[in-house]
Amino acid sequence: MGEAIVITSGKGGVGKTTATLNIGAALALKGAHVVLVDTDIGLRNLDVVMGLEEKVTYDLIDVLEGKCRIRQALVDDPRFFGRLHLLPAAQTRDKREIEAEQMRSLAKELKGMFDFVLIDCPAGIETGFVNAVAGADSAVVVTMPEVSSVRDADKVISILKALSMPKPKIIVNRLRTKMVRRGDMMDENDMAEMLACELLGIIPDDETVIRAGNLGEPVVRGTSPVSLAYRNIAERLQGENVPLQVLHREKFSIFRKLKRKLG
């Protein structure tokens, strides 16, 4: 039986979809069989960043409504030798057409087919979020070293706790080492302390991510620090003891006041 992991953040624009793709791709490169489930009904993007939009025939709602079988809706990514698949979201439907119980049932079936089920959660904390979380065994919260992003992540972590989910792990995305050294940006330890969660990974800010997304190419297949960071995350999800990358050496501690302000 596989594991279902929801990748969330609360707000949009922090890199959930990019993280979902590249973690899944990294797991597939290590031999795991992975399915990525896009639950952002009406605003699907996972097929685009994977470069598979032309291959989509059926979608998540078609499966839930019994219009097709799961395997008919799955889109295979040919770059990963049958180990990475996409279950796309519906582009012309409404997220309210899905119920939490349906997602629980779907996730259970997918876990019987794959080693990892990665659920790309829509932005916000309303119906789409509740449905995406319903079928997950655990959660990963993607956040950025910005006050608003950390506050949103803290809210999501509180909601996950209220839903009796295990304490999530966090990914700090788009960390800028020069700003950290100058004391103008929180570092990963500040954020882990503020959110009281374990760090799963640190993703440095790198223009290769934007370029890869525009080309429909998983950045994890490259050789940049971002590629290594995602491969390390995949190894940690598989239970391997991989040290976090050291992206900076020292910084000023001007964020102590911010920590007190955010509680």
Write a structural description:
The protein has 263 residues and is of the alpha/beta class. It has one domain: P-loop containing nucleotide triphosphate hydrolases (Rossmann fold), CATH 3.40.50.300. 40% of the residues lie in helices and 16% in strands. It has 12 helices and 8 strands. It has an 8-stranded mixed sheet with strand order 3-4-2-5-1-6-7-8, sandwiched between helices. Strand 6, helix 7 and strand 7 form a beta-alpha-beta unit. Helix 1 crosses helix 11 and helix 5 packs parallel to helix 6. The longest helix has 16 residues. The radius of gyration is 18 Å and the shape is globular. The relative contact order is 0.18. About 2% of the residues have low confidence.
Mean pLDDT: 91
CATH class reads Alpha Beta
Q: How much beta, percentage-wise? A: 15-25%
Order of helices and strands: EHEHHHEEHEHEHEHHEHHH
The N- to C-terminal Cα distance equals: 39 Å
The global form is: globular
- CATH hierarchy: architecture: 3-Layer(aba) Sandwich
Main beta sheet strand tally, sense and closure: 8 strands, mixed
Oligomer: single chain
Supply the helix-strand structural class.
alpha/beta
Supply the number of structural domains. 1
> What portion of residues is helical?
40-55%
User: How big is the Rg?
Assistant: 18 Å
Task: Enumerate how many helices there are, as a single number.
Answer: 12
- Give me the count of strands: 8
Strand neighbour order, sheet with most strands = 3-4-2-5-1-6-7-8
CATH topology: Rossmann fold
